[in-house]
Each structure stands twice: as C-alpha cells, then as structure tokens.
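User: We ran a pulldown and think these components assemble together. Before we commit to crystallization trials, I'd like a predicted model of the whole complex to look at. Sequences follow.
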Amino acid sequence: MPEQNLNPATTDVAQIEASQGQRRLTLGWGLAFLAVLVLLVLIALMLRRTQQGPIGIGDPVPDFTLTTFEGQQIHLSDLRGKVVVLNFWASWCIPCEQEAAGLESVWRQYQDSGQVIFLGANYVDTEPEAKGYLAKFDITYPNGPDLGTHISQEFRIRGVPETYFIDRDGNLAYAQIGPFSSAQQIKAIIEPLLQK
Amino acid sequence: MKRWLWILPILLIALTFGVVTAQAQSGTPHTPTDDEVNAVAGQLYCPVCENIPLDVCGTQACAQWRDLVREKLSQGYTADEIKAYFAEQYGDRVLAEPPRRGLNWLVYILPPAFILAGLFILFQAFRTWRIPEAEQAQASPPVPEVGDEYLRRLEEELKKR
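Assistant: Here's a predicted model for the assembly, 357 residues in total across the polymer chains.
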C-alpha cells in the first residue's frame, strides 16, 4: 500500500497554490465580465443611435444644414418663425415626379409672402440627373444633395418622396409619406400652420 | 555624303508625325472598361436597395451610380478616391468594408478577440480535464484486488435481500 502524504508543510504549500490558482481564475473571470459589460454598453449606445424612432409630430426638429446645388448653405435654425416644407426626392423616383409640379406651384404662391420656405433634399442621387430633374420640372425653390444622408437619417425616412412640415416654432407639424395627390392637399396642410 | 542627305527630310517628317500622334494619344481620356467599372462598383453597395453590391444591382439608380464610377475613373480618380467620394455623398453604409474609425473598430477587433478568448477557454478546459486524472493516479491509493469468491458471495447476499 503506498504511503499517503501526511506532511503538514507539503499540505500547506498545496493549499496556498490552490488558493492562488483560485484567485487567478476569479481575476480572469472578473476581467472577462468587465470586457463583456463594456461591450454591451457600446452595443447599447450604437443601438440607441440607430434604433431611434422617427421625429414625432410636435417634437422639435433637430437643426440641419442643406447645401444647395449652387453652394448656398441653409440652416434650419435660421428659418425659425417661418413654415418650412422639407421634401425628400430623387431623380430615379417615379412617384416624386407626380408631385413635383404641385410642389413648385404651391411654392410660387407663397414665395412672395416670405412666410413659407420650401426646401428640397435630394436623396442618394447623382448630380447631373438631379439637376436634369430640377430643370425638367422647372423647380425654383432651394434644392441640394442630402450629403452623407445626414438629414434623411435625422428624419428616419423610409423612402422617397417624403415631405415634412415644420411649424414656426421649429416643431414637426405634419409628415407626408409618399406623394401628394394634388397642390390643394399641400395648401391644406400649410394654411393652418400659417394661422398659428 | 550627299547621297544620304535625302533621308533627313523623311526622318524629320516621321519624327513630327510620331510626336503629334503621341500627343493626341495622351490627350485622349481613358475610357474605362466594364470590368474596371465593376471592380470598383463591387466594393460599393447600393444606397437604396440594401445589401446589394453596386456591380450586380439592376435598378436605374444603380445604373446611374455605375455611370458615375465610370466618369470618375475616366477623370483619373483611383478606386479609393471614388469610394471616399461615395461615402461623402451617400454615407458610410455604401462601403462594402466599414471605415476603420470610431465604433467601426469593433467589427475588426471583436471577431479575433472572441476567437482568442474561445481558444483560451478551450485550453483551460483541456488542462482541467487532464489534471485530475494525473492527480488521481498519484494521490489515490490503488483499489485493492478483490477475489472472485468475495464478489460471488456479495452478489448472493444482495439477491437474498
């Protein structure tokens, strides 16, 4: 029968080694837990940014800058006190063509009053085709590319055309998803906003 | 000597023609082939129809963007410059490979980190599986050999109960 190790000194060393190993293991798991926690926080921040819902009716519209095809910079914050009609469009979008003439005619009706501003944000398009579209429908209100799709991302648009009406206080008053059926429909949305 | 002088005007004319032809060729813009356009377009994604590379996308918008790639190539833009232009115009989402900045780094760091962590866990697991065996071989006393007679009797006793 083999001799059992009953030397107390050897047993102590074994216990110390075991406890050190246990401590290393605990530290390793602690670090792993911390790393996973940091990762989860980062993912949560990313999701919070990407999964943010669209701007609700009555919510303030964050400021944005539209650089027109002519190079003029238009800041939304500078248009406070006026009703802003922001239309997202693209030259490859067939439904956009349905409402193009209507938008332009309503813009011309309000242009001189200075109380209503129309803005066109050209969504993921190429410049020659976009300019061709503007010329084709004789569109005269300020238009420019949505560079980096920053503006459309703020509004969380789902496609084009989409039109957003911003009241004098800079809050979202109405969102039109899809094309307008007529110029009268556009006017019917603007008029109550001018009365406020 | 005079017999060879007639060659001089011919050489002069040939030289002038060569220079003019070379200049004309260098002035002509390079027309990129479809393969060259698709090589760049394959590194970009359609900004409208998600998850479709630009070189295989069939929409009108994609055809316009491929024309834009062709135009930029003919202007002498490199593939990287074209990609940068598209990212600026349409956002980073059009890039097949996310740019290495900000939180995008997670895409490049996490997969290898997880693989390394997995390998480490496997290594630790294999080690812990092996150690008890060795310890057992060293520490535990050998099981005493039990005679067949003893086993037979034990089984008999158990059956009786």
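The radius of gyration of chain A is 30 Å. That may be worth checking against your pulldown data before setting up trials.

User: Thanks, that helps.
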